[in-house]
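Sharing a chain and its predicted structure for anyone who wants a worked example. Both blocks are below, sequence first, tokens second.
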Amino acid sequence: MKKIIMTRFKKTILLAVCTGLFGVLLTAHPSGMGLEENLGLSLLFQMRGVREAPSEVVVVALDSASVDHFQLPRDLSRWPRSLHAQLVKKLSDAGANVIAFDIFFRAAREGDSMLGEAIAAAGNVVLIESTEQKMPSSKKGANTVGENIIFEKRVLPHAPLAEASVAVAPFPLPKVPVRVNEFWLFKNNSADSGTLPVIVLQLFALQVFDEMIVLFENVLHHPSVIQAKKEPALTTSFDLLQDLMTREKSEMTTGSSLNIWVRDLKRIFEKKTVISEALVAEIKKPSRTYPVLLKALIKMYAGGASRYLNYYGPPGSLVTLPYFEVFEGLEQSSLDLRGKAVFIGSSEIVSISEKQDDFHTVFSQPDGLKLSGVEIAATAFANLLKDESVRRAPLVLNFMSVFFFGVLIAVCWFLGTPLKAAMVTFVTVVVFIVLVFMQFKHSGMWFSLIVPLFFQTPFAGFTALLWRYLDSKREQKEIKKAFAYFLPDRVVAHLSHRVEDLRAGNQLVHGTVLYTDIENYTTLSESMSPKVLGILMSDYYEAIFAPVERHGGIVLNVTGDAMLAIWPAPQDDPLLRKQACETALEVCEVLDHFNHDTTYPVLRTRLGLHCGQVMLGSIGGGHRLEYTAIGDMANTAARIEGLNKTLGTRLLASDMVLRGLEGFLARELGVFLLRGKSRPIGVHELISDVQDCSADQIILCRDFGSALDLYRRRRWPEAVEAFSEMESDEPARYYITLCKHLITYPPEEIWDGIIPIKTK
């Protein structure tokens, strides 16, 4: 037994390690990373649902309502730029902190002068630039090693407008229909000046410009920076930081100063140096009271070149104002634009330009409604502003999460029965999902979810169940080999799969037992010679063994006139209980034919059925062993068989045998406390198969049940009358006598109707 336990322990450890490593390797593979990004991240967003967007961000939408209001063409590029000029003026007058256009003004158009003047007057407008991808042409026969290289070319807005703006910036998004999960902060082919959300945040943060200079001064006076400033590797960063400190706030909105500022500050953070680390450490000091906006700005520069978008919900989740409503009078609107960052662009799936500007995201609607480019840009800015972008869990931490989940899930699959293991596994999976979701919801940290749920869990489950099956087959083979010392091969083939008990000398199973006994066998044996009796009993057992073996039962014991047969299983099996009932009915039928055809005296046989746990094992001593069923269950089956004599019946079964079975006609005979037992047991008479029963038998069962109900309700005179209508029925006669006794000698008030049996 110890060897088996150690083997299972080793298998559990092996499966746990393999499941953990399988998950880690798949998570690290690009395909696994793609699954987590496309499915896992989407699942977490859907579980989280819509969240409140920051009030500092507003989208002015060029939508269908505005097209209809102004009677303008649906091609956005044909809208009068004089109208955009009026929009800029109204937004500026309303106190907007930053105005960002997600509209590319490529060529010269009428109204450019008005728009340029409005942009220059506002002093806080950022325009978007475009990029063009080109593949260099190669001459025929030239070396084609680099023919797949693609160059990106910056395409600036119309020069007068670009010069009037504070800054221009790109906002590259996928051109193919894939889900947008990330956004660029900095791209090398964009002169490192930052994308639209970065530029807007830097412009938005000019309100904390003085505090930023103080931060730079504190860092330059930091002991670690002073000590390391003479190192050649730090010279560039040190000079850049000193140069930034000399610039004036008023200069930031002129020329290309803002783009240069962003580029230079980013260069300080490109490499992990003492200065960049000191800047991050400085804003985290509890003793410092730097503005939250400044902290968000520094964290933006200190982060990577791209971020995962933390969407607030489906299209329209950000505060959105239709383009035409700005002209209707902001003073009449409840929306206050003072200090806000306003993004202007197309915000509908209905294309109002020749170029579609909608993208597939985790919140894309079933009806096809997607998120527009301007909403994605505004979302990216809001994420940076609040420092709440989604971020992957640190690599080591994520691998540890996946590995230990695999270990835990593998251990769960080896706990107890397959059903118990599945239930524990389900609970473990639910807890894991909740933990991952809560981490995502409250901190934005994203742990792997798809690989653990849809790869590790099935892998561990399938492998564990396969091992269980192979172990079961091997144990069955060992049982057959061991039991061959006691029983014929055709019987051994039906034993169950508990090899650990076999090696300990016995086997604990859940079995259904059929016990038979011949009525008045002692008198019969005294009237016949041993030889004749032996022939009779051989024919008798040959007749009743056949149904047992035909229905998958095992004859364990034959003692004189009694037979003990069992249908064993590792756990309760309704199919085996049904087979035992079919066997008992067939034995009754076979004996009827046997008694009719034989010239010997009639062998009236009583049968009892019971089920429960029983120990199959050998008993005896020395060189004499007998393999049999050991335990109270077999003894109870014999007691039930003996109850036939009291009730005048032939075939009785406990309620545990018939529980949940269909296809049999049976009637409840009551609850009895059998001799030598401490617990009462419900007993039924198994009458026949439903297909073979007669109408009289059905009526008898119905009427007997009604009379039995009267007995239990202490209405004994009525019960006597009801049972008397079935006077030819032996159990009814028994209850008539019992009810009359109770009428004469009423029991105490607390009476449960249980009938004690004094005889075997």
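Comments welcome. The domain at 487-756 is CATH 3.30.70.1230 (Alpha-Beta Plaits).
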